[in-house]
# Entry
Amino acid sequence: ENRRYVARLGNGGDLESVYDKRLGRELLFGPARLEFQHERPVAWPAWNMDWEDRRRPPEGFVEGVAEVAVTERGTARVAVRVRRRARGSEFVQTFRLAGGDAGERLEVVTEVNWRGRACSLKWAFPFTAENQWAAYYNGLNTERRQTNHKHCFEMPSAGWIDLTDAGGAFGVSILD
# Structure
């Protein structure tokens, strides 16, 4: 917890809650989880993704025994490292909350030693902000595109993604 956020990890290492104290609002309606996605495209399997695969439920999740360690505990920042293994791959996520101006965000560093086959990995964020449109920065410009649409479900992002609630009262951004 810091001045702005209360972040809570579940026993399995998933991010279960991000409460924004300034807004008085929970930002997640369920745990943010690493999902194994079905990945068997009709054409170009080395690089293509098919909409039909995106519509399927996840094949599974990164779950099971989590090794959890507090790696920083100071006045400027606290950090918790979560190490998990699933399907032959290793996943290490470090969650950080800082004080001062750096405390305006929750930092998560994710490292993956990937050994997956015929699937992809997605970190799914079930945000309470709802909107059929999101803004993406692709390294050259900002684009507004529909979310979860069969013609634009694959959106390259090089910097950030923003989902502002349709009512405009709040939103969330993922910075890369």
